[in-house]
Amino acid sequence: MNNRFYRPAALALGVAVLASAPAFAADVVYQEPPAPAAPMEFAPVNTWSGPYAGVSLGYGFNGETRNRATNEEAETDGWMGGAFGGFNMQNGSFVYGAEADINYSRVDGEATTFDSRSTVDGSLRARAGVTVTEDILLYGTAGVAAERQRITDVATGDRDTNVALGYTVGAGVDAKLTDQVFGRLEYRYTDYGSKDYALPGVNGADFDSSNHRVSVGLGVKF
Question: What is the C-alpha separation between 189 and 79, in angstroms, rounded?
């Protein structure tokens, strides 16, 4: 009697196992592998390479305009404002390039026999520096500079304007405020050399000029 009971039960159990085996096997064979982990993405490193342009405001100080014939000097100072633009290239932490600027200026001064005033100045310079961090660039700069200067004879009121050409050297720091916008602080010394002026009442009328300047600027990198 026991055998009659267990045989059908065993047969039913075997049939159930055989029926479920293909589904189990299918699950094993066709189970999808886990999705691969997404690759890590890194933000691109900000560089100083490329063109840029900006505006600046500065102050000229400890300047002088000198009559070379008499050694009479006029001490000059005053404000200036203008625009600059250039192009940088970067190799590791070394950054180099070229820059030009033009400024409207009111750097002036008085001597006993003449007055001096600079109206427009500009320069074309090479720049080279190093990045202290990705966002801060320290640089030196040097190149040629020009100045449109007006000399006035105090006694007669006669005046003459000329363009003098010289050199400029300096250093500064550019600091990124955003990926494209940067601020600037710069110092330069400029010697414009000498030039003759058509002033019959002034002895010699051969003047040279120079000045120091500090400027701040705001630029955009393209």
Answer: 15
Taking the C-alpha atoms of residue 82 and residue 66, their distance in angstroms, rounded to an integer, is 26
pLDDT in tens, 105-152: 999 999 999 999 999 999 999 999 999 999 999 999 999 999 999 999
Q: How far is 221 from 135, CA to CA, in rounded Å?
A: 12
Q: Which tokens sit at 44?
A: 């691109």
Rounded CA gap, 131 and 18, in Å?
73
Helix (H) or strand (E) holding 30: helix 2-30
21: how many CB neighbours lie within 10 A of its CB? 10
Q: Give the pTM.
A: 0.78
CATH of domain 50-221: 2.40.160.20
* Closest CA relative to residue 97, chosen from 146, 170, 163, 48: 48
